[in-house]
Design a protein that fits this description.
The chain has four domains: 2-33; 48-90; 111-278 and 291-299, Serine Threonine Protein Phosphatase 5, Tetratricopeptide repeat (Alpha Horseshoe), CATH 1.25.40.180; 316-467, Serine Threonine Protein Phosphatase 5, Tetratricopeptide repeat, CATH 1.25.40. The chain contains 25 helices and two strands. The chain is an all-alpha fold. Mean pLDDT is 81; it is low at 87-95 and 288-300. The chain has helices at 2-14, 19-33, 48-84, 86-94, 111-128, 131-141, 147-158, 163-178, 184-201, 208-221, 227-238, 244-258, 261-271, 295-299, 306-319, 324-334, 337-340, 343-357, 369-374, 376-383, 387-403, 410-420, 426-434, 444-450, 452-467, and strands at residues 358-360, 365-367. The longest helix has 37 residues, at 48-84. It holds the Pfam family W2.
């Protein structure tokens, strides 16, 4: 049994696993140490008042012990002098000694105690979200040169919790720095303690770089740190393992959602940083920011592959639920005019919009027309009433239906919606129907059969219009 617990203690001290696992192992070790009787059963989270009271009691107890030790030493010294000097022995019996007033310095707090008190403050803060009270508690804790422990515990405690929790923790760290309670060197040291283990922690926490970015982005959004300063410090422990570019791109991506691509592009340009400073030599730049204000902006716009376009647009539309303006900003910041009208971009855009509109009701698939209607400005802007562009969009829709194993009536529902909303013209529909392009024949026969009624109705409506 001892071997198992020795191994558990080794895992906790190495800090190569996630904080959640380390805390669970520490709890088991504490239980064994106290004969399997929990010290914290049914206590619940401590209030701020309890934390203050405990800290005051501990401080008073420490001062009392130090005073007792000093008084004891002084008493022994006087006793020794009385025994060797008869005069002093006589005086001591008649003169009452004055009390000795001591002002001992408080001994430095151990790392374990600093971690425990930091975690209590953080748990209470996340429970009530009172920034003012949390800042006061950290200030009263008087960690001085150990404040990096508070930062590390804060990061590790929220790393695997909700996005809102990580945002709150990032805001608290920013306020501590802004009010001069948390020096920047201590902030960076606490963050570095986690970053040095992040590559190993990624095994247990696959999205660790996104989670770290959510913790760090508030300090940039609020203007407490410069882009150059923060990114330079963050990259120091990550460059040797080739992960600096990943974390920085995640931070920039979050800022783009909260601000805009143009604003973030300006911040990046003002910092004077270069992607080659953060990426391994063989790795290509996957995140391009630009404010579009100079000829240099055009040089930063590289050619995106179809796969990259699909991944980025699906992330914007399906995961981030970006607004139309954010999509416009991204397209203008990253693509030139020729790419905006290219088949890969048009197909990737149509696929992302239609994929977002597909709803699976267990038994069958249907089209959420409200999503198509919400994305009309995006579709209409880039299809631009151009028959050839609309044809590429229909090819993309055909490929999506094939990828979904051609659910019954799904293509017909898309055709009805796209026609009713004037996204696709009659000419484009007819051109798709008669197309013999060898590259677009996969699933074409089944697709045509599923929309036979649509084209029958389209021709009948056209004939009635001509007769009228």
């Amino acid at each position: 049994m001892d071997q198992y617990f020795n191994q558990m203690e080794k895992i906790v001290k190495e800090r190569k696993t996630s904080s959640r696992i380390r805390f669970m192992l520490q709890d088991i070790m504490d239980l064994r140490l106290h004969n399997w009787v929990s010290r914290r059963a049914d206590q619940g989270p401590k209030t701020i008042e309890q934390i203050h009271k405990e800290a005051k009691i501990e401080e008073q107890e420490e001062q009392r012990k130090v005073q007792q030790q000093l008084l004891s030493k002084d008493s022994k010294r006087r006793q020794s002098r009385r025994q060797t000097n008869p005069t002093l022995l006589f005086l001591s019996s008649t003169v009452k000694p004055e009390p000795v007033v001591q002002n001992p310095e408080r001994p430095p707090m151990s790392e374990e105690e600093a971690e425990r008190k930091s975690k209590s403050i953080i748990d209470e803060f996340l429970h009530i979200n009172d920034y003012k009270e949390a800042v006061q508690c950290v200030n009263e804790l008087d960690l001085s040169s150990q404040l990096h422990i508070f930062v590390r515990v804060g990061v590790e405690s929220t790393l695997e919790r909700s996005q809102i929790t990580r945002d709150h923790m990032g805001q608290l760290l920013f306020q501590l720095v802004q009010q001069g309670i948390l020096p920047k060197p201590q902030f960076y040291k606490g963050i570095t303690d986690t970053l040095e283990q992040a590559d190993d922690m990624a095994i247990d926490i696959p999205h660790i770089w996104l989670y770290l970015a959510e913790l760090l982005s508030p300090v940039l959004k609020e203007g407490g740190f410069s882009v150059r300063e923060l990114f330079s410090e963050l990259s120091k422990p990550l460059l040797p393992v080739g992960r600096a570019g990943i974390l920085i791109s995640e931070i920039l991506h979050i800022l783009c959602k909260q601000m805009s691509h143009r604003t973030v592009g300006s911040l990046w340009r003002e910092s004077g940083l270069n992607w080659t400073d953060f990426l391994p030599e063989e790795e290509d730049v996957q995140f391009v920011v630009s404010d579009g204000s100079s000829s240099e902006a055009a040089l930063s716009k590289r050619i995106w592959s179809p796969e990259e376009l699909s991944q980025q647009l699906e992330r914007l539309l399906l995961e981030d639920m970006a607004s139309d303006e954010q999509i416009f900003d991204w397209v203008e910041a990253t693509l030139d005019e020729s790419q905006m009208s290219s088949s890969p971009f048009l197909r990737a855009l149509m696929t992302a919009v239609c994929k977002a509109a597909v709803k699976d009701d267990n038994t069958n698939c249907r089209v959420d027309t409200a999503i198509i209607q919400r994305r009309l400005p995006v579709l209409l802007k880039y299809l631009n009433s151009d028959t050839e562009r609309q044809l590429q969009a229909l090819y993309a829709l055909q490929a999506l239906i094939v990828a979904l194993d051609q659910p019954p009536n799904l293509l017909r529902m898309f055709f009805d919606c796209l026609y009713d909303e004037d996204v696709i013209s009659e000419d484009a529909f007819y051109k798709w129907e008669t197309s013999k392009d060898p590259a677009e024949q996969e699933g074409k026969g089944v697709a045509l059969k599923s929309v036979t009624a649509f084209f029958t109705w389209l021709r009948e409506a056209e004939e009635e219009s001509e007769d009228n």
